[in-house]
Specification:
The structure is a single chain. A hairpin with an 8-residue loop joins β16 and β17. The chain is 12% helix and 41% strand. Strands 10, 11, 12, 14, 15, 16, 17, 18, 20, 21 and 22 form an 11-stranded antiparallel sheet that branches. Strands 5-2-9-7 form a 4-stranded mixed sheet, with no helix packed on it. It is globular, with a radius of gyration of 22 Å. It is mostly beta strands. The chain has 2 domains: 308 residues, no CATH class; 80 residues, Sandwich (Immunoglobulin-like), CATH 2.60.40.1120.
Length: 432
């Protein structure tokens, strides 16, 4: 369920994106049996890490794309990646790019498929001195919106994407759901909604760690797809945005050797409703939005909480403590398209007559891993369409063996997630 943040006259730059469900009572601790899917092994797997060449720090959310194809993936929060490439493309090259760094193009023949370290270098030139052709940031935003039809894909496409959502109680992972989804992506000039189909899904949840509450996410992949701000322009960049937000230039940067303007935005001082603040990254030559990173203003958590909670126990107060959003676009043949989005949320639950509170964190992320112009047989039939109210953890069918995903690209799981899953599986085996 998607909810707008409104007061009497104002709309924000973005809407709140999901709803939490807090239900009293211990949930069913059973977990569905694993679903084993046999896929054709016609691909080569490459696993490695992307780092800064000087500091050796991991580069988080670096993009990896197979040249002359639509196959791509992204590194995780530890810079690690897993890329599966059909054998027929083994003669292609791979491009690794990251905001503010020089992109690197590598032959697959140069890569060791076991453990790869890719080092990227920062740009040497002083980008803060790049001449800004627009007279002010507001004019740049207006030009960005005006050129949406020219800059983004104008065809209906069939996208394959990987989606993951996690829930942590403080520092311990208690739930993980993953899915491969197929998306009928509408042209960026169209007002029609995207259609989604669940292709594969799995979950692992340890409800014994959730006290007397089950925390569930409603909307699943719809939440991350809604972060495509250039497709959902009216909800993010509406007619009132210059009345409620201030925009100003920051230091410029580069990606794929293209100059990128950086625009900071935040709500005006007179606006009391919780809105957003962050950065927009806009290509200098075409004025296309390449990335957006922002947070919800939580100075008044009681007001902000109205945008997240669908149901909760009467004796509990639920307040947001973190709300961070990101969307990245990729480009092919001069046209940009949705590539990746991520939502990070944190909540504190205060109970009446309890000394200690409960703190939960959740992350949702989705990456496009392949796409092509839609064909007649690709159109998702009504009976197969996902509902926007889906709770993925209820739909998934258990956690499977490592070969479950076959040839499909995924975001490499972080080590804490892997450890948590193994621990949950051991606990479930003992209980059974």
């Amino acid at each position: 369920m998607l909810q707008q943040i409104y007061n009497a006259n104002l709309k924000p730059l973005a809407t709140s994106l999901l709803v939490f469900i807090f239900l009293l009572g211990i949930q069913n601790k059973g977990i569905a049996s694993n679903l084993v899917v046999n896929d054709t092994i016609g691909f080569i797997q490459y696993k490695g890490i992307v780092i800064d060449s000087k500091t050796k720090d991991p580069l988080v959310f670096a993009a990896l794309s197979v040249n002359e194809t639509n196959i791509s993936t992204i590194s995780n929060t530890q810079g690690e990646f897993l890329l599966k490439v059909p054998k027929k493309y083994s003669n292609k090259r791979i491009t690794i790019s990251f905001l503010g760094y020089t992109s690197k193009v590598v032959d697959f023949s140069e890569l060791n498929s076991n453990k790869i370290t890719i080092k990227l270098e920062t740009h040497i030139e002083e980008l803060s001195e790049v001449k800004i052709s627009m007279k002010d940031a507001r004019s740049l935003i207006s030009e960005m919106l005006k050129r949406k039809g020219d800059n983004y894909i104008g065809d209906q496409t069939m996208m394959t994407a990987f989606y993951r959502e996690t829930i942590k109680k403080r520092r311990t992972y208690v739930s993980l759901s993953e899915a491969v989804v197929e998306i009928n992506k509408q042209p960026y000039t169209s007002n029609r909604s995207e259609l989604l189909r669940l292709f594969k899904a799995r979950k692992s949840t340890d409800y014994s760690k959730l006290d007397t509450i089950a925390l569930k996410l409603r909307g699943g992949p719809f939440n991350t797809l809604y972060m495509d701000v250039m497709k959902n322009t009216p909800s993010f960049f509406d007619d009132d945005m210059f009345d409620v937000y201030d925009f100003e230039f920051d230091k410029s940067t580069k990606i794929d050797n293209r100059v990128i303007y950086v625009v900071n935005f935040k709500q005006k001082r007179h606006v009391t409703e919780p809105l957003y603040f962050g950065k927009l990254f806009i290509e200098a030559d075409t004025f296309a939005l390449t990335s957006a990173q922002f947070e919800l203003n939580l100075d008044n958590p009681y007001k902000a909480s109205r945008n997240f909670i669908l149901k909760k126990p009467k004796k509990a107060t639920v307040l947001p403590i973190e709300a961070v959003y990101q969307v990245d676009y990729r480009v092919k043949n001069g046209k940009w398209y949705y590539g990746y989005s991520r939502i990070q949320l944190g909540f504190k639950i205060n109970w009446e007559k309890r000394l200690f509170n409960s703190v939960y964190y959740t992350t949702m992320e989705m990456a496009t891993t392949d796409w092509h112009k839609i064909k007649k047989e690709d159109i998702i039939k009504y009976r197969d369409r996902l509902r926007s109210s889906i709770i993925l953890s209820d739909e998934a069918q258990g956690f499977s063996d490592p070969e479950f995903w076959g040839e499909y690209n995924v975001i490499e799981p972080e080590k804490p997630i892997e450890s948590a899953i193994k621990k949950i599986q051991r606990q479930l085996k003992r209980k059974n």
